[in-house]
Structure formats: structure tokens, C-alpha cells
Design brief:
Layout: H1 16-34, H2 36-43, E1 57-58, E2 66-67, E3 72-73, H3 75-84, E4 92-97, E5 103-107, H4 108-124, E6 132-136, H5 142-152, E7 156-159, H6 166-176, E8 180-184, E9 186-189, E10 192-195, H7 197-203, E11 212-216, E12 230-232, H8 233-240, E13 251-252
Parallel strand pairs: 6-7, 6-8, 8-11, 11-12
Antiparallel strand pairs: 1-2, 3-13, 4-5, 9-10
């Protein structure tokens, strides 16, 4: 479209609601700066705590501030359980559309069931509170399921971009100390299948800490599976049982949730 054909005579008038929401956000920001403890104490009431915090901010060792230091909670519980127990059980929680046009939807309850099955599978493989799990996955439903399953059992997840090289994957996995890798056979980019497990296979000899590799069947392309180490995702959750349930691990609000790495373009990636 050329500049001459742009509809400059058209005018967009935002609704009062949209205008008001901007003003509300501005007021909230100003309040958070003026009275940070009071502001965040009020916001924390929206969280379901296993143990409500008695302190909002510990600023005794700047710049290492600790928010809600004596509070206890679980992110998976807040994302799923409280909604399943309430009025949102059968409401849509997640809508996914793949590159090939597939659409998958999950209600809060359906997502809750999938997360519990994978959480149980991870426990079956010996994953416990504080363990690291690396995700080398495309953007598919199993990715958020894996994130929530990890935090449900108190694990720490590290997501690695699925387009990275074997060397880049190994650098990040070794740095975070992951013992489990969740990946996929491949993905679709611009309508064509792209190998992911093959990249992981090239990295695995240099990742001695990885004891289990869980593989999502996304494209159906042929891959190598090492007996005793590699397992299909669908087999792992089937073994966990359709009615699997894992009690959410009680976590301190200061416990690590995930490790996110820089691109590493200017040196060793930092997590």
C-alpha cells in the first residue's frame, strides 16, 4: 500500500473504558513508587498462599532485596488448582494454534490433568525439589505443561531456544546442572519439518548430567532413541496414570522458579 492510499481521513476514538484504564495504570504506578510496601501488600492478597507473608520487603542487604521472604506458595497451584476448585474449572485456560493450522484448547481442568501426569512422570524418574529440568522444545502445548509440572514438584526449569546449536544447548544445560531434558522429535518452520532431537543427540555426549530425555512426538520424523535414557512423552505420562495427582510442593517465595539465559552473543551465556 502506498502512502497516498492510506486512510488519513479516518479517526480512531478510544472508548472511555480504554482511556480510563490508562489513567488507572498511571495511578497504580504512582502509588507503587510512593508507598511500595503498602501497594504490594495489597496486590499479594490476590495470591493463594500456603503461608501468608508477614513481611513485604526485606531490604536489609541491598541490592539483594527479598520480597515476601517468609511467604510460602506454589506457582502451579496458583495457575491451576485454585481455578479448578473454583468457578473456572471448565473455562478455557489455553488456546494453541500451530504453524500447520492445528488448534488445541485446554480448560483449566484439562490443563491441570496434563500437568499432574507429567509431574508424576518426573517424580517417577527421580526428580525432586530443587532439581533442574531443561526444556528444548518448540512452541507447543507440552511446553507450558512442562513448565507447570516442573514447578509443581519444586523443580527449576531452564528453557533453551529450540533453534540453538548443540554447543549452545550443552553450554546452558551444563551451567544450570539439569538432570532431565524435555525435547521433541522436531518442529515445523515455514511449513517444513526441522529436526530438534538430532540437535539434542549431538549435544548429549557433552551433557553428562542428563540422565533422562523425554521426547514429544511433534512431526513424526525418524529419530534415534537410546534405550534406558530416552522415553516418549506420551509413554511417560501414560505410565504415570490417567488419574495421576501430585501434591504441589510448598515453596518459599524466595526460592528459584526458573533460570533464563542471555543469548551469549558477547560471551558465555549468563543465567
Amino acid at each position: 500500500m502506498s502512502d497516498a492510499s492510506l486512510p488519513f481521513n479516518e479517526k480512531y476514538s478510544p472508548s472511555i473504558a480504554k482511556f480510563s484504564s490508562g489513567e488507572i495504570r498511571k495511578q497504580m504506578w504512582e502509588e507503587s513508587i510512593k508507598n511500595p510496601r503498602e501497594f504490594w501488600a495489597e496486590k499479594a492478597k490476590a495470591i493463594d498462599w500456603f503461608k501468608a507473608p508477614t513481611q513485604v520487603l526485606d531490604d536489609s542487604n541491598p541490592p539483594f532485596y527479598k520480597w515476601f521472604p517468609d511467604g510460602e506458595l506454589n506457582i502451579s497451584y496458583n495457575a491451576l488448582d485454585r481455578h479448578v476448585k473454583g468457578s473456572r474449572k471448565n473455562k478455557l485456560a489455553y488456546i494453541w494454534e500451530g504453524e500447520m493450522g492445528e488448534v488445541k484448547t485446554y480448560t483449566y481442568y484439562q490443563l491441570y490433568r496434563e500437568v499432574n501426569k507429567l509431574a508424576k512422570a518426573l517424580q517417577n524418574y527421580g526428580v525432586k525439589k530443587g532439581d533442574r529440568i531443561a526444556m528444548f522444545l518448540p512452541v507447543i502445548p507440552e511446553l507450558p505443561i512442562a513448565l507447570l509440572a516442573t514447578v509443581r514438584i519444586g523443580g527449576v526449569h531452564a528453557v533453551v531456544f529450540s533453534g540453538f546449536s548443540a554447543e549452545a544447548l550443552a553450554d546452558r544445560v551444563n551451567d544450570c546442572g539439569a538432570t532431565v531434558l524435555i525435547t521433541a522429535d522436531g518442529s515445523f518452520r515455514r511449513g517444513k519439518p526441522v529436526a530438534i532431537k538430532d540437535t539434542a543427540d549431538r549435544a548429549l555426549p557433552n551433557m553428562p548430567g542428563i540422565k533422562k530425555v523425554i521426547v514429544v512426538k511433534r512431526t513424526g520424523q525418524p529419530i534415534q532413541m537410546q534405550e534406558g535414557r530416552d522415553v516418549w512423552y506420551h509413554d511417560a505420562i501414560a505410565a504415570a496414570g490417567a488419574n495421576a495427582y501430585v501434591e504441589p510442593e510448598v515453596m518459599k517465595s524466595t526460592d528459584p522458579l526458573f533460570i533464563l539465559y542471555t543469548s551469549g552473543t558477547t560471551g558465555k551465556p549468563k543465567g
